[in-house]
Amino acid sequence: MGSYIRLVITLTAIAAAASFGLSAVYNATHDITEEYKRLETENARLEVLPTEGGEYFEETVTDQTLDGRQFVYYTAYASETREVVRGYTFTAYGKGYSSTIETIVGMVPDGSIAGVKIISQKETPGLGAKVQEVASSNTLWAVIAGRGVDETGALPWFQEQYKLLRAADLRVVKNPGEDGVLAITGATISSDAVTDSVKRGLTMLVSIVGVGDESTDGVWVPPGDAVEDEGGEG
Fold first, then answer.
1. Which of 43, 80, 82, 191 is least enclosed, having the fewest CB within 10 Å?
2. How far is CA 161 from CA 139, 140, 179, 234, in A?
3. How far apart are CA 112 and CA 218, in angstroms?
4. What is the pLDDT of residues 43-94, one digit of tens each?
5. DSSP string, 130-169
6. What is the mean pLDDT of each run of 10 residues along the chain (234 residues)?
7. What sign results for the dihedral spanned by CA atoms 13, 19, 21, 23?
8. CA 80 to CA 59: how far, in whole Å?
9. For the segment 221-234, what is each residue's pLDDT rounded down to a tens digit?
10. What DSSP assignment string belongs to 177-224?
11. Residue from 34, 88, 8, 24 nearest 56 by CA
């Protein structure tokens, strides 16, 4: 009986020590993790819009909910004067096969997608995880022989499909050449999760800011084009 009690006490002490250790590690790394995620999200906003640098992002927290979350979007202005709108961004949340897939979406004021970037997913490696895969055209032998093509800056092929699409165009297809987003082979659930969540968010954003009318709160001019205000600044 005494040995049983000692065993229970020993196991309890080990469990308590392990729990304390995990808690200490979490507390020590939580702020770092949150800051990393914040910076990743900020960088993603810049990546999904046609920006030139110096843009000013203004957050808008709406009273509407989407997928159980309060809908939040950002308006990207060319500068802090907020006279020229570059576009809008929001985060889409789609329930995949084994995780919630978070996608940053950029929309220009004509209602089309400028770009998407998946910032969080825990889908099955080799299947759903391919939503973030950068497909390479290089073969192993080409690389060994020194004939590999420099693919620096290549973007995930699945995410690139969304560019220039509008909400009405967002549907998953299984055959190349069909209009829509080509599904990842063996990962239709993940493909649907991203596409459907982007479509829901895009539809809501368009309904809020309007497309092609005065409710866009500014005049959109693609980067590189001159814009003159009353002060004559570009």
1. 80
2. 23, 26, 10, 32
3. 17
4. 889 999 987 888 899 999 999 999 899 999 999 998 888 888 999 999 999 9
5. GGG-------HHHHHTT-----TT---HHHHTTTT--GGG
6. 71 75 66 74 89 88 94 94 92 96 96 96 92 72 58 78 96 94 95 97 94 45 38 36
7. negative
8. 13
9. 444 443 333 333 33
10. TSSSEEPPTT-HHHHHHHHHHHHHHHHHHHHHH-SSSGGGSSB---TT
11. 88
Copy the structure tokens of residue 99.
């995780």
Task: Give the other-Cβ count within 10 Å of 185's Cβ.
Answer: 10
The residue count of the chain comes to 234
Scan for tokens 């001159």, then name that residue: 226
- Which of 76, 114, 128 has the alpha carbon at shortest distance from 198? 114
Residue carrying structure tokens 């003159």: 228
CB atoms within 10 A of CB 87: 26
Contacts with 96 (C-beta within 8 Å, 6 or more apart), sequence order: 121, 123, 128, 189, 190, 193, 194
Instruction: At 163, list the tokens.
Output: 């560019």
